[in-house]
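Record 1 of the preview.
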Amino acid sequence: MLGTTVCPTVILPVWLLGAAAYLLGSIPNAYWIARVNGVDIRTVGSGNVGATNVFRAVGKGWGVLTFVLDVLKGFVPVFFFPPVCATAGWGSDASAVLFAVLAVAGHNWPVWLNFKGGKGVATSVGVLLGLAPGAVVAGLLIWVAVFAASRIVSLASLVAALGVPLFQWWRAGWRPALLPVALTVIGALIVLRHRANLRRLWAGTEPRFSRVMRAKRDRACGGH
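->
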């Protein structure tokens, strides 16, 4: 557990699995799926290496596939790695939080794409499924409500990224606890990757989803 003396035989599996969590999070599913379809996702749409941009630029089915794979990047290290650490004598809760942050950081700053990745929303959903399934429901409700009102994906994602940690702090009675702190860090990583969106939201130029899809249909029909 945290605060106890940890021998090298414990440190080794923890950090090997930590590296694996980061590398798994770094897998650029959006980039590879778009490439299979002859598209460099970094040069179309928003330029973001994420499921939403694949959905818009490549197709709905490919976007859904990207989202599912990105969710798995967060779920697998958080759900399957901690039991290994527990057998080595390291707290499974602490290791789960470590792997969660590393997986999201891997998605946001992937080594395979010169540390220029996505925004961490789908991978954070996977992390929540492994760490706090109840928070997934809260985040989904927040996302749907904001998206229904605004039709802006980035705004819905940002509000959910802030709302989920607040929900977890409320559940913890506003007392310092490992999980709310971890979700606050993950939420901060998501907000950090949405800096350009925040600037466009402030300027009133962030595109709405219905407008983007309509423009795509117009291009497909030659503008008619």
